[in-house]
Amino acid sequence: MIEYSEAEQRMVLKLVYYGPAMSGKTTNLLTLHELLPRQGRGDLMVLDTADDRTIFFDLLPFFLVAPSGLKIKLKVFTVPGQVKHDATRKAVLQRADGVVFVADSQLCEQANNGASFDNLEQNLSLVGQDIGSIPLVIQFNKRDLPDVISEAEVKRIWEPTGIPLHFSAALKGAGVVETFSTVSAMVYDHVDARFSLAAFHGLTRDDFLAQIVRSSGADG
Ligand SMILES: Nc1nc2c(ncn2[C@@H]2O[C@H](COP(=O)(O)OP(=O)(O)OP(=O)(O)O)[C@@H](O)[C@H]2O)c(=O)[nH]1
Ligand SMILES: [Mg+2]
Q1: pTM of the model
Q2: Domain that residue 116 falls in
Q3: I need a labelling partner for 161 at 20 to 30 A (CA). Which of 47, 48, 68, 127 fits?
């Protein structure tokens, strides 16, 4: 739910990394923070417990300016994946403009992925959003580990949904910037359809992506 103030020429967008516990959501943000140049982004705020598990959320903000003068802040959040933190997940998901679902590729985690995806669908509907219309990307993470679900099997299951898929090893930096770029492009298209970013503000999708990803040479 895009926050927009015409008087202040300001827009705030919200992206949420969702998924089961330990799938690598926080690691995606740490990797983005490490790989993307400092210009254009803010500081990373990570709220962990002692054992590295998110208890509330992590936040990495990005800042853009359109040729019209419109200032855009893109706030990238992670939710806590542990089942018991459902109320927090729902709160973080409020007013999201885009979602990355980070699945754990390990075979033993597939039931948790399914339960977490159902939880995403349910929580989106509880905050008044529809999983079929919000910009959404699925990332199968931890491809570097043994005993992972095959790419062919992931594609067989998920390609019919039409949701873009990425494969990653976030801890090693692979696939993280690509996932972020895909969802950011989808969020851009969503915002452009409503606020004419290109026509009124002179901000094309390529400019938008260039400002946040800054042609860092991508990862992987
Ligand atoms: N081998 C491997 N380990 C990973 C990868 N991504 C994350 N990890 C590890 O998995 C563990 C959990 O990662 P986090 O990023 O904290 O997971 P999370 O999804 O934020 O977990 P919660 O905050 O509890 O929901 C950490 O030990 C990470 O180093 C990966 O691509 N490969
Ligand atoms: Mg986390």
Answers
A1: 0.95
A2: 3-213
A3: 127
